[in-house]
Amino acid sequence: MFNLILFGPPGSGKGTQSEKLIAKYGFKHLSTGDLLRSEISNQTKLGMEAKSFMDKGQLVPDAVVIGMVDAAISANKGVNGFLFDGFPRTKAQAIALDNLLDSHATAINVVLALDVPEEELIARMINRAKTSGRTDDADESVQKKRISVYKNETLAVAEHYSAFDKVVTLNGLGEIDTIFTSICAEIDARA
Ligand code: AP5
Ligand code: MG
Hints:
Blueprint: E1 4-7, H1 14-25, E2 28-31, H2 32-41, H3 45-54, H4 62-75, E3 82-85, H5 91-103, E4 110-115, H6 118-132, H7 135-138, H8 140-162, E5 167-171, H9 176-188
Helix pairs in contact: 1-9, 2-3, 4-5, 6-8
Bound molecules: BIS(adenosine)-5'-pentaphosphate (AP5) and magnesium ion (MG).
BIS(adenosine)-5'-pentaphosphate binds next to helix 1, helix 2, helix 3, helix 6 and helix 9.
């Protein structure tokens, strides 16, 4: 089993690259943002609670997100690996994920971190807002909040995995296919 975290700030290309990676390697894609948006569109209680945080660019509470991931891992026994996108986002989530995977006798193999300058992240979010319907893309103050939450709360996840020498930083600027090739090279070197 090969488990990968695709790491990076909002707009760095995690979702874009995940789609290509699941097509090539058959990973089970686990995007907490997508799972939360699906709860919102189904108007569940969890979704309504999450929406109030997401619309402000804040993180949804750890317990909610960890519970969702726990359920998704248990529901997908037998897959040949998980691709975590947008999770873990706090040190507490990273520790919880390590424990969950350990209880399934597996672990994170590598964290691939996409490096993209802040001006480009904002430009991508503004552009995506035209078509995504994502309420957290449209407003400049929310875009900035998401980036500051990333710096203040989520960078700790990279520090956590760096201590185990599991983090590789890749250039996330440029052609989508070029970035994809560099991601695949890191996976192929380890799989
Ligand atoms: P989430 O859905 O995870 O969003 P995010 O991390 O903010 O990241 P994005 O989905 O905005 O960007 P991406 O990196 O996937 O980039 P993409 O490929 O789309 O989270 C949303 C919210 O949910 C959070 O703010 C939080 O409230 C909540 N949440 C989610 N997970 C949580 C958790 N674990 N804990 C707590 N709360 C959680 O690309 C962006 C755009 O750029 C696209 O338009 C794309 O076409 C374009 N693009 C991609 N690559 C390139 C390229 N190389 N060149 C030019 N354009 C490109
Ligand atoms: Mg995404």
